[in-house]
Amino acid sequence: MKPLKLIALALFFFASTANHAQVSINVNFGTPPQWGPVGYSEVSYYYLPDVESYYDISAQQFIFLNNGTWIRSRNLPNRYRNYDLYSGYKVVLNDYHGSRPYSHYQEHKVKYYKGYNKGPQKNYRMASNYNNEHHDNEHHDNGNQGHENHGNNGNNGHGNKGNKNGKH
Q1: C-alpha torsion 82→85→88→92, nearest 10
Q2: Could you give phi then psi for residue 63, rounded to 5 degrees?
């Protein structure tokens, strides 16, 4: 009888450990970029109207049209090298959960035209700076808030090294 109890106890611990591991995987899926809009935890893609591109949060890749083909890349194409991801508007596609958000590109392009802006968006870097400023006891000069040059030109700080003529 005692070995049966030990086996049951071992199975209980194994099952509880397996369930915990599954929860951890689901919780850590897809970390939004610093330029992403705050407040959306269950989202896979953003649409960037100004550059008519998508961003895949879990793969950390931009998806854009290049010569009639949808390309995935860590960087935006060269034609958008001066685009500022921090100030550009991001449409959160919280109703799409597939692997090809561009299957709705014609709808997105019309509904979220170049220049589309539904209002200010707080990004993760802004939220982080705000939290740090309000939790420190030091005085911070915020005179340049919102006017700094982010220097990444829409490429997550990676530049376009090794990519000639916008080809990836």
Answers
A1: 140
A2: -125, 120
Cα atoms in the Cβ-side hemisphere of radius 13 Å centred on 113: 1
- 42 with 56: CB under 8 angstroms? no
The amino acid at 9: L
DSSP-derived letter for residue 16 is H
Closest CA to 33 of 24, 43, 23, 25: 43
Regarding beta strands 53-56 and 45-48, do their DSSP bridges make them parallel or antiparallel, or are they unpaired?
A: antiparallel
The reply to whether the predicted model has a pTM over 0.85 is no
pLDDT digits (tens, 9 = 90+) for 75-110: 999 999 999 999 999 999 998 989 999 999 999 999
Supply the mean pLDDT for the chain.
Answer: 74
Look at residues 94, 98, 82, 83 and name the one whose alpha carbon lies nearest to residue 47. 94
